[in-house]
Amino acid sequence: MDELIIFLILLGIGYFAGVFAEKRHYEDIRKRERATLYVPAVSFGAKEPLPDARDAMLFVETVVISSDYFKTFVMALRNFIGGRVVAYESLLDRGRREALLRVKEKAISWGATQILNVRYETASIDNGRAGPVSVEVIAYGTGIR
Questions:
Q1: pLDDT of residue 131 exceeding 70
Q2: pLDDT by residue (tens digit) across 28-39?
Q3: 3-class SS at 141?
Q4: Is the predicted pLDDT of residue 114 greater than 80, yes or no?
Q5: CA proximity to 18, closest of 89, 75, 72, 79
Q6: Cα 2 from chain centroid?
Q7: DSSP character for 49?
């Protein structure tokens, strides 16, 4: 019985700590997105003409976002019954937005006026063990000025 109580307490702590950290991260992301809004990040098709530029540089940034124990527990339950795993979707959303922001911030410091052909790569990091799931997101694009 003591083990169950400890488990539930840790699960509750994981829930509240995770909600707090995620909320704070989303607030930071929204603030930084507003600050970098003036530099568009766009993708072009194969036959579309690219804008003229005097300089170009590739920018690559990566971020690893980890879930808390509560989300990991919910994801494990969701595997039994199936359906959307909303907790995992928020990890991917935060990872993509953070990685793109890092690309934009580096490109802006270089002097870029636009970022072309933005792409994303993702990977799940779990090392084959039980515990929190981590997601790695790599964003890259060509900054022009």
A1: no
A2: 999 999 999 999
A3: strand
A4: yes
A5: 72
A6: 37
A7: P
Higher pLDDT, 67 or 131: 67
- Tell me the C-alpha distance between 98 and 127, whole Å: 23
- The domain segmentation of the chain, as residue ranges, is 2-144
Residue 69, C-beta contacts closer than 8 angstroms, at least 6 positions apart: 10, 11, 14, 18, 131, 132
Query: If you search the block for the tokens 């022009």, which residue do you land on?
Result: 144
Q: What are the structure tokens assigned to 40, written together?
A: 């568009």
Rounded CA-CA distance 73/65 in Å is 17
Domain 2-144 classification at class level: alpha beta
For residues 110 and 33, what is the distance between their CA atoms, to the nearest angstrom?
A: 18
| Residue 126 contacts residue 134 (beta carbons within 8 Å) | yes
CA quadruple 31, 36, 37, 40: dihedral sign: negative
Find the DSSP H helices in 1-145: 2-35, 69-81, 86-110
